[in-house]
Amino acid sequence: MQATQPAFFKQGPKPLTRLLIFSTLSVALMVGDVHFQVLGRVREQVSFVLYPLQWLATAPFAAFHEARDFFTRQAVLIAEHRKLNDQILVARAKAMRVDALLAENEQLRGLALRQQQSSQGSRLTEILYSGRDPFSAKLIVDLGVNGDVKPGKIVVDTEGVVGQVVRVQPMTSEVRLITDRNHAVPVMVQRSRLRTVVYGMGAGQPLEVRYLPPNADIKAGDLLVTSGLDGLYAPGLPVARVTHIERPSGSPFPRIQCQPVAGIDSHRFLLILDNPPSPPPYPAASEPAAKGA
Amino acid sequence: MPVTSHLPRPVRPSLILLTLIGALLLNLLPWQLIGSHFAPDFVALMLLYWTLNQPRRVGVGWAFVFGLAMDVADGNMLGQHTLAYSVIVYLVLSRSRQINIFPFWQQALAMLGLLLLAQVIMAVLRLITGADMVGVSYFIGPFLSAFLWVPISNLLLVYQRKSVPESL
């Protein structure tokens, strides 16, 4: 019967046979794919053929997204730009604040250290503002009568002498800086033990040592420290460093310029020192306070 | 195709290929935008349709080839779609004469069963190879596909139902 069947009816293998063949193939594919991972090539080939279809299927959506992006991009970008700008402003303000706090912290640490080291009692004070008078170098600090501050007390920072309390109000006090015009500090040259007086020359100006003989043992780079002779300044506090010595031919005295050691106008916190134990009274008359000339 | 009064036109192989490729294209649309579980399997639908319509042309071999394409396109384990498609196409082949005389809505029910079977086969294969259990939503797609059976069959028959020129 099979042999007599005309070619017209020939359909190849029966459907069941085909199913068995292709199921076996499928299972082989699965085993090969899952257990042996050997079908990378097959996958590559098929996906190469499929790629145009995949591209075609996703192209309209991609184009739609592209178009939508194009139209929203402007608005989004502008909004985002604005937001980022705001954030930058806030962040920058914060960063500046952090920098300031860091510096302040550094100085407070130094002051605390100095407070521990110095045998004298001292009080920490904060600068409220600098004096408004342009002709004198003054600071206003936040301790007054309430902080047991008395005129004549010495004000220092971590590096050296800043000034002297000249006036005390209930809550504040006024500090005259050593750079104030004609403010005098009795000092000695640390290297040579030469005693002299250093004068202020006005706000923002260097200090000056006057009336030294031309052969005095002083040179640029010398450190001037308080001598303690006046009974107000404790001895040994750094005051200034000699920067420049000039010996003009027409003058009997050399001109000696010094730079204050302390950061006169760069800090927020200062230390007010208690007076050193007062020396025994001067034999003839009481010593005049070295409160400027 | 239900019994009709007149003889349908013969189908060109290129039409079969074209519709299958179109179905593949539809399957490749980014369905994940609306949830891939709801995607009707157009390839399976077209394979079933042509197997039912042209049992002497379309068979298990086609199912295997397009199953392989689906496997690669979906990035699935190779062999998953091939086996499922082969099985359902074989089932249609073995009963094509019976199903062919049903009205469309009954055919749709049969197709729903076959498509569900395909999903079950694939789910079981994934479970065997160590995947997690899929949710019930995995079986929503076949319902949508079965729902599309009637309109798609009618659409494709438009071509075949065009009256043959008298001069033939």
Automatic annotation (TrEMBL), chain A:
Sorted UniProt keywords: Cell shape
InterPro entries the record matches: Cell/Rod_1, Cell/Rod_MreC_2, MreC, MreC_beta-barrel_core
- Keyword hit for Cell wall biogenesis/degradation: no
Superkingdom classification of source:
Bacteria
**What residue stretch is flagged as signal peptide?**
none
Rod shape-determining protein MreC beta-barrel core domain boundaries: 128-273
Q: Is Cell inner membrane there in the keyword field?
A: no
Its job: Involved in formation and maintenance of cell shape.
Q: Which PANTHER family match?
A: CELL SHAPE-DETERMINING PROTEIN MREC (PTHR34138:SF1)
Instruction: Give the record's family classification.
Output: Belongs to the MreC family.
Under what name is this protein listed?
Cell shape-determining protein MreC
Q: Which organism is it from?
A: Chitiniphilus shinanonensis
Q: What is the lineage of its organism?
A: Bacteria, Pseudomonadati, Pseudomonadota, Betaproteobacteria, Neisseriales
TrEMBL record, chain B:
For the keyword Coiled coil, the answer is: no
The membrane topology term of the UniProt record is: Multi-pass membrane protein
Q: Which Pfam families match?
A: MreD (PF04093)
Q: Which UniProt keywords apply?
A: Cell membrane, Cell shape, Membrane, Transmembrane, Transmembrane helix
Where does the protein principally reside?
membrane
Q: Which compartments is it annotated to reside in?
A: Cell membrane
Determine the domain of life of the protein's source: Bacteria
Stretches that traverse the bilayer = 59-92, 104-125, 137-159
Q: Which family does it belong to?
A: Belongs to the MreD family.
- Name of protein: Rod shape-determining protein
